[in-house]
Amino acid sequence: MVANETNQTTDIQTSRETTLTSGLTEDAVVLVIGRWMPIHNGHKAFLIQLTKSCRKVIVGIGSCYENGTSRNCIPAVEREKMLRAIFKKEAIPEEAYEIVPIPDFSSFSEWLNVIKQLCVLKGVTHFCSGNKEDILDELEKIGEDFPFEIINPETTSSIPYHATEIRKLIYQGNYEELEKMIPHEIKPILFKNTFKEIVASSRKRGIKIIPGRQTVDIIFLVRNLSDGKLYVLLGKRSMEKVDFPGFLGLPGGGIDLFETPIAAALREFQEETGLTFQMIDNSLEPAIVKCSDIPNATLEQMHFIGIYSSEDETIAGTRGGSSQCFGIFVEDDLEKYQDYLNPTDDLTDVCFYEVHDAIAKGLAYQHGEMLEKAIAMFEASPKLVKPITSKDLQEKAETLVISFVGASGSGKSTAAFGTTYQLKKEGASVEYVPEFAKDLFYNGLLGKYIPNQSYIISEQYKRIYDLLGQVDFIVTDAGIEISALHASNESKEVEDLAWYLRRKLRQVTIFIERDEEKVPFEAKGRAESEAESRLFGLKLKEYIRNNEISFFKAKGSEEAVAIACQLAVQDLKNR
Fold first, then answer.
1. How far apart are the C-alpha atoms of 464 and 433, rounded to whole Å?
2. pLDDT of 387 strictly over 60
3. Which one of 131-145, 291-305, 533-547 scores highest in mean pLDDT?
């Protein structure tokens, strides 16, 4: 009885597949569009059958620039990898299929015009979609004679579920049922990054792609074998650029229509640096690539670092959109790659910068954040610093002020205490200068003097001034940048005084963002609530940038201490 039931199911499956492919010929080129969010067994069976029944299948990834919601929760980069994984598992040759991202548009007519353009470009003979409500019904309303035959796979599918049900199983934690519905070969991708993205999006914490110009950025890190240092490849942006003119930036640029993000990344990297990386296998995360310029080059990994989006023009520029960032990390002789640098596009002065120098100079857009994340992912230099030794702290010279700034509760004082302790322990001449405004707060006098910022600024500066020339380092958790921001609400004259005093100092500034996952907000002893603190932090960062003050960014006090100590070592070496 069981055997008969199995045979009956197989007969039904074969019948449905025959119905689906009966109108196809060996010369047919089929465009099939789906969101593939994620790929399930029904998708796989249908796509594999298509590729075996026609000359070529063009797989369109719909809603390719939608992300961060419960409906659209998987980046197109990862959906492409899942598609390639199922084709690879079934030994489908790459010439039998092509993957094409397709964006959403504000109207169906705009979307259809792009689809027609794609069909002409690829020689499509059959158009395939199971989206009856949004696509097939709309095509029927138009009543137009299309130069391709329309196929609806839903009428022949032998698997009754949809990707929506799979996402629900992830939300519900039902792995047993989930495993029955998804191809085994997509699991390494689905459960590496995508799983977390799906869950985050269901909780309205997903990263959204901002409408506008869609771009890619590429981080190429090299651990130089000769000196052990970590270098990143950067170039200088033209002074004619509207956004971040003259800034150092990562290689990158816009994604062309019908171009996958990873293909755009490889193309832009070659155009802006002269280095060519060949894609070996993009059915994995990370993908496998090889530098075709370097003789006897090894296989390397190309990671998807993430999507970077912001509506803040001070960091995202004026053209909107988002960036999809990729990264490659190699450990090799730097000279090998320097010899092949031959930029032909927007960036000039393309060369390798030691990571700490690059961060100190400041990078365009969100490139600094991308670089920090990539270094952490690659474990290339987890703390971005090297250990401090007594030998590094032998000579004394002009005082350097190490100033920690940030919102209330971000960890400025903890970082200042930690840095002072670490430097003293290694024999440095260092003094800590506390925040004068905090003394006023604890004495119940802050409210009295808030309208008189000139007094607070002067007292804060005096505490620093008295130590100049007396010690190697002054460490403070009360950067005058904060006083300048407060003064901007009082008068231009007082604000100018703050900046005048700030620029008289030889100072490095470290902006600390509270690590909210590890450190709860401590309200005791603070004049601001957590929400007010967070808002002030954003305002302060923008204010510092607008006044062209370079700064290092740290997440939490521990990272801030590590950066400060490394800067102290470097400062002594450069004196």
1. 7
2. no
3. 291-305
Give the per-residue SS3 of 252-290: EEECCCCCCHHHHHHHHHHHHHCCCEEEEECCCCCEEEE
pLDDT higher than threshold 90 for residue 265: yes
Q: Report whether the peptide linkage leading into residue 286 is cis, meaning its omega lies within 30 degrees of zero.
A: yes
Q: Which of 169-173, 315-319, 439-443 has the lowest mean pLDDT?
A: 439-443
Q: For residue 314, with 0-12 CB atoms within 10 Å meaning exposed, 13-18 middle and 19 or more buried, which class applies?
A: middle
* Token pair for 298: 């090894």
CA pair distance 560, 58, nearest whole angstrom? 49
CATH class for the domain made up of 390-574: alpha beta
**pLDDT tier at 19 (50, 70, 90 boundaries)?**
very low
- For residue 516, what are the contacts with CB-CB under 8 A and spacing of at least 6? none
Q: Which of 4-13, 33-42, 89-98, 436-445 has the lowest mean pLDDT?
A: 4-13
Which residues, in sequence order, are CB contacts of 411 under 8 Å at separation 6+? 512, 514, 515, 519, 556, 557, 560
Task: Dump pLDDT digits (tens) for 108-159.
Answer: 999 999 999 999 999 999 998 877 888 888 888 887 777 788 887 765 555 5
Which of 451, 405, 433 has its CA nearest to residue 547? Answer: 405
CB distance 258 to 248 below 8 Å: no
Amino acid at 128: C
Q: What is the CATH number of domain 27-202?
A: 3.40.50.620
* 137 neighbors 152 (Cβ within 8 angstroms): no
Structure tokens at 360: 């100190």
Which residues contact residue 186 at a Cβ distance below 8 angstroms, ignoring those fewer than 6 apart? 38, 39, 82, 85, 86
Residue 25 CA from chain centroid, whole number: 44
Average pLDDT, the chain: 84
Across the chain, which distance is largest between two alpha carbons, in Å?
95
Class of domain 215-378: alpha beta
How distant, in Å, are the alpha carbons of 159, 199, 266, 285, 299 from that of 193? 27, 10, 21, 9, 22
Residue spans per domain, the chain? 27-202, 215-378, 390-574
Q: Is it true that 215-378 and 390-574 share their CATH fold?
A: no
Listed residue (55, 2, 45, 46) closest to 24, CA to CA: 55
Q: Is beta strand 149-151 parallel, antiparallel or unpaired with respect to 56-61?
A: unpaired
> What is the share, in percent, of the chain residues with pLDDT greater than 90?
39
Helix (H) or strand (E) holding 328: strand 322-332
User: Is the pLDDT score of 559 beyond 70?
Assistant: yes
For residue 282, what pLDDT is reported?
96
Q: Check pLDDT > 50 for residue 395.
A: no
Q: Measured between alpha carbons, how far is 400 from 416 in angstroms, rounded to an integer? A: 14
Cα–Cα dist 502/461, whole Å: 8
